[in-house]
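Course assignment 3, question 2. Fill in each field.
Student: A.L.
Task: Predict the tertiary structure for the chain below.
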Amino acid sequence: MKIDSGTTAWMLAATALVLLMTPGLALFYGGMTRAKSVLNMMMMSFGAMIVVTVAWVLFGHSLAFTPNPSGAIDAFVGGFEALGLQSLVETATADDGSGMPSLVFSAFQLTFAIITVALISGAIADRAKFGAWILFSFVWAAIVYFPVAHWVWGGGWLNTMGIEDFAGGTVVHINAGAAALALALVIGKRKGWRKEPMRPHNLPLVLLGAALLWFGWFGFNAGSELAVDGIAGLAFMNTQIAAAVAAGAWLVVEKLRDGHATTLGAASGAVSGLVAITPACGFVDPWAALLIGVLAGAACAYAVGLKYKLNYDDSLDVVGVHLVGGVIGAVALGFVAAYPATDEQSAGLFYGGGFGQLGLQVLGPVAVGLYSFVITYVIGKIIDKTMGFRIKEEDEVTGIDITTHAETGYDLGSVHASGVTSPNGPVTSVPAPKKVEA
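Answer field:
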């Protein structure tokens, strides 16, 4: 097949945009933690980039996007045709009519796997062993993400039934949100949770991270069309609409509920809208994107408080934003789908479709959410019972940055020299330089 240079160029750019989202997430999460944990929080995202890339090359693409010789097993996981990606080099171009090299498609999908794993880390900020996180990332990608990607996008059972997920509401956000809840339950609450203030230490970092996520999300959503056409343009516009409207809705809720609108609310609201529009962006009219954004922004603003009512410590609100937002977007598609991917696909309920598609849009989140939660809980428990998943209490109090990485996010040596204590934990004081005679 001849390579389409326009499609290939766009997909290379979209892949770079999605990859940028993970460093953006690192900044977003890093700013939301306390100062003594910022580096570890960011390292968890970068660790996911390293580990998931290795797993993807070895077997991830193959399990997600190649057919399994056994028809029964193919419904749940792919085969081994692309181990090491060697067969993709040999075929050079995708055989799906997209006109792009197979490795470009693989690289694009790799970036989705990376950020899905990285998203989970926000639920366990301040208290997870870095080595345990690295092991978890590899195992979780292999046992949870790759099979789920096959279910929905690679010809698996949900794909065969006709579920729609344009860019990852089910595969990425519901998957990560359910896993985040399970892992938070396994590791337990932070020391001092609900007793000590655990406010974001650097809101400018949060806003910068949210901006990079917003920017990269255009590649995430519009790139998922795998072509340069009208649907890509629709996905692009709907992404912007939902993010902006959701940020506004979150701020309105804050103003009415708390008396003031916050920068953290604006950033979180934008992300909630991006999450919710992800499964629907290429299938709905712009008015529907606006509706989805309003619903997501308002609902997620309230959902982040569930952890206090249900008594689980989801440090950075992965459940409230990604799980809840993902469910809103996936289910809303059953009501407002207007541009189905194929002629056989049913339109949403508001466009004359029946309840069949709506049922599938409910089934997908339930199936993926339950699978991810149960398997994550099992993986987390096994790691916790063997190597231990949580750092020592005294290390958590001192600060995970200094105890795990022997670094701090901010150089406060001059402050220590004057006898002022740093929030980052103990750092060796630097004596003032001696006066040198002329």
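Instructor remarks: Confidence is low (pLDDT under 50) at residues 415-438. Residues 89 and 242 are 38 Å apart (CA to CA).
Grade: pending
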